[in-house]
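Subject: design request, 535 residues
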């Protein structure tokens, strides 16, 4: 059995026996680069499609509410397959499993560009998500098992480009392609890097026989309950705000299904001899607290990538390309900084780097808590740059310290849990922020509306001035002009309430990141990460 093949085993009872000779350095790095390129494209495809969702909906005749399933179907399939990937790689061999899904991802990218209606797009996106979801944990598994410990930070830096850089740069690429070439090109853009990915994986991964007999020994009760539970939970999180949460029978039923299924999954995993995921890894200090910090990172990472485009569109009236240009400054600095992080890890305590990263990420959100109607691209520049620096400093050291000491037989479980929980944190973050944003807008709107009374001199004076303005600009009926004045004031109040709600949302993200910072203070430094003079 090859070294990588052994690494993909996700069951704690498995052991690595008779490992193949070590791979050459060229083949080893080809496998790492090829797999991380796949992970980058899989994550990029979430944000790049979200940035162009309105154009896709219009092209295939989807309504605003139903069009959300274009993204939801991808996310459901992705989060379900991530925890399955370690076991399936063992069953089908890592080479066959990873290459097959890489090729399927590219084929269904093209198919999505050719979709003509909503039903086709939802099905094709789900299959694309199922294939893309494989690429993320497999890249992580290859890095933490194939690379020597001193080289793992370099591999994790490459992986960080998919975890933090891809969500940041996705709206920029999506907006540019949609505005200049058409929405179909957000799917075609995968083809050239995808061909490189397939070539690198084909040349580097060891051939190994399939072990189809493991299908009969699989943890099928765990697989079924996990798949049902995660699919139901992801749907609740994606659709809950739109459906008024527990005011909807659909959401209530799905929530019950998710709760029951995931509770059964936890019971099964702790009782079965060969579980799908080794959940006992969560009891390890660094991995457990690393997961907590990773979930909060997912909330802030995907949450901020969700909130900023809405603000720029709703308040400033930016189109997708303009939004992308603003968000580019959360991505471009990462491309320059992430390659430097492994060197910083050699010089400084990795826990210090994580803490500084979370502190900067939190500060970037807290800088946005005093927003006004003039708060646009220029005012967002420095918060976005600081956010980019913070994200660059967090992911690689956090991944390294959380997975330090993970045995090869547990690599699949560790990879699945680490990546699944970050994605799940992102889903929870977006769902929570959607609701929080709505509720805070209603709160501020009520406060502002109650403070504006027709009995006040200032209000009557403002209405009179606006009425005169409309009368001087083509409105001949004074009653109509007065009505327009009142509507204009109401819209101004609504806009101000929205701005205040966005400020509150950024404050909440800052608090979440401070909590993540506190979780990192409980991490213990592993011996092989000996930066800053520790041994």
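Subject: RE: design request

Done. Sequence follows.
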């Amino acid at each position: 059995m090859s070294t990588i093949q052994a690494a993909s085993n996700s069951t704690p009872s498995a052991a690595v026996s008779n490992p193949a000779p070590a791979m050459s350095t060229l083949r080893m790095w080809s496998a790492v680069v090829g797999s991380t390129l796949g992970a980058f494209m899989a994550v990029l495809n979430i944000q790049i499609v979200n940035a162009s969702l309105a154009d896709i909906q219009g092209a295939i005749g989807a309504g605003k509410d139903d069009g959300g399933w274009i993204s939801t179907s991808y996310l459901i399939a992705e989060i379900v397959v991530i925890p399955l990937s370690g076991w399936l790689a063992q069953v089908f061999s890592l080479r066959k499993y990873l290459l097959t899904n890489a090729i399927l991802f590219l084929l269904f990218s093209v198919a999505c560009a050719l979709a003509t209606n909503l039903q086709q797009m939802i099905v094709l996106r789900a299959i694309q998500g199922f294939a893309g979801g494989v690429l993320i944990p497999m890249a992580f598994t290859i890095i933490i098992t194939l690379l020597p410990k001193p080289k793992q930070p370099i591999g994790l830096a490459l992986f960080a480009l998919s975890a933090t850089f891809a969500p940041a740069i996705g709206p920029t690429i999506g907006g540019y392609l949609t505005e200049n070439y058409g929405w179909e090109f957000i799917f075609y853009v995968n083809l050239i890097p995808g061909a490189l990915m397939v070539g690198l994986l084909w040349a580097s991964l060891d051939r190994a026989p399939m072990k189809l007999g493991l299908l009969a020994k699989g943890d099928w009760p765990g697989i079924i309950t996990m798949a049902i539970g995660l699919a139901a939970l992801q749907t609740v999180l994606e659709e809950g705000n739109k459906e008024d949460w527990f005011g909807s029978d659909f959401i209530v039923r799905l929530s019950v299904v998710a709760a029951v299924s995931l509770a059964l999954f936890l019971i099964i995993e702790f009782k079965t001899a060969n579980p799908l995921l080794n959940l006992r890894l969560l009891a390890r200090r660094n991995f457990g607290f690393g997961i907590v910090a990773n979930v909060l990172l997912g909330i802030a990472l995907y949450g901020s990538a969700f909130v900023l485009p809405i603000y720029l569109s709703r308040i400033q009236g930016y189109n997708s390309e303009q939004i992308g240009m603003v968000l580019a400054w959360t991505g471009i600095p990462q491309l320059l900084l992430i390659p430097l992080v492994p060197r910083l890890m050699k010089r400084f305590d990795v826990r210090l780097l994580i803490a500084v990263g979370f502190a900067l990420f939190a500060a970037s959100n807290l800088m946005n808590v005093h927003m006004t109607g003039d708060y646009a691209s220029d005012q967002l520049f420095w918060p976005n740059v600081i956010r980019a620096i913070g994200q660059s400093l967090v992911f690689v050291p956090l991944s390294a310290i959380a997975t330090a000491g993970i045995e090869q037989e547990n690599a699949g479980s560790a990879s699945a849990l680490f990546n699944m929980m970050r994605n799940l944190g992102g889903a929870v973050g977006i769902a929570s922020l959607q609701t929080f944003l709505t509720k805070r807008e209603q709160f501020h709107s009520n406060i502002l509306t109650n403070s504006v009374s027709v009995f006040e001199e200032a209000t009557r004076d403002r209405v009179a001035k606006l009425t005169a303005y409309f009368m001087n600009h083509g409105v001949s009926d004074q009653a109509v002009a007065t009505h327009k004045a009142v509507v204009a004031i109401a819209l101004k109040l609504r806009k101000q309430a929205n701005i205040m709600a966005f400020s509150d949302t950024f404050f909440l993200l800052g608090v979440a990141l401070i909590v993540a910072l506190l979780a990192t203070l409980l991490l213990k430094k592993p011996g092989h990460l000996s930066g800053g003079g520790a041994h």
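Residues 1-21 have pLDDT under 50 and may be disordered.
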